[in-house]
């Protein structure tokens, strides 16, 4: 195989996650999939947390680029949110890889810098701009975690319709209507609706 370097480790980790999911990822299993001794990985990432942090930073590569091209603060924050969702959806379990990390690496720092700056430009007072930017990030991550979990359920379980028939819709009519709305509303529209409501309540034009 080609010489192992950090980029190859990350590429191998993503390939493993695509096939098995992030929960199955361990340093030993990754080493086996790469055809190397697991100790070799420690030359490139010091432990599993360092690997996760590196994957999170890799996900955000380019997300914050060129977001200051004349767009207003709210539009910049909106663009960043859509870019973040696209980045997280680019890999299986992408949102779960990012969630729970506090990565101090260039791509994640660039995203935070851009999001806070966009919140400030939107008229959010300085002490609240961080909370506004992170609220948007939390919304995106939470939405995509649910979105990707749904994909996994479809892969693993073809009985969604049968499971829904076990619900007593006469007792829970709002749930019946809600399920229909969710089925009839594309994911992109669901995401845009929640994001727009969040930004409307957060940003001043």
From TrEMBL:
<feature type="domain" description="HTH tetR-type">
    <location>
        <begin position="3"/>
        <end position="63"/>
    </location>
</feature>
<dbReference type="InterPro" id="IPR001647">
    <property type="entry name" value="HTH_TetR"/>
</dbReference>
<keyword id="KW-0805">Transcription regulation</keyword>
<dbReference type="InterPro" id="IPR050109">
    <property type="entry name" value="HTH-type_TetR-like_transc_reg"/>
</dbReference>
<dbReference type="InterPro" id="IPR003012">
    <property type="entry name" value="Tet_transcr_reg_TetR"/>
</dbReference>
<dbReference type="InterPro" id="IPR036271">
    <property type="entry name" value="Tet_transcr_reg_TetR-rel_C_sf"/>
</dbReference>
<keyword id="KW-0804">Transcription</keyword>
<dbReference type="InterPro" id="IPR004111">
    <property type="entry name" value="Repressor_TetR_C"/>
</dbReference>
<feature type="DNA-binding region" description="H-T-H motif">
    <location>
        <begin position="26"/>
        <end position="45"/>
    </location>
</feature>
<keyword id="KW-0678">Repressor</keyword>
<keyword id="KW-0238">DNA-binding</keyword>
<dbReference type="InterPro" id="IPR009057">
    <property type="entry name" value="Homeodomain-like_sf"/>
</dbReference>
<dbReference type="InterPro" id="IPR023772">
    <property type="entry name" value="DNA-bd_HTH_TetR-type_CS"/>
</dbReference>
<protein>
    <submittedName>
        <fullName>TetR/AcrR family transcriptional regulator C-terminal domain-containing protein</fullName>
    </submittedName>
</protein>
<dbReference type="Pfam" id="PF02909">
    <property type="entry name" value="TetR_C_1"/>
</dbReference>
<dbReference type="Pfam" id="PF00440">
    <property type="entry name" value="TetR_N"/>
</dbReference>
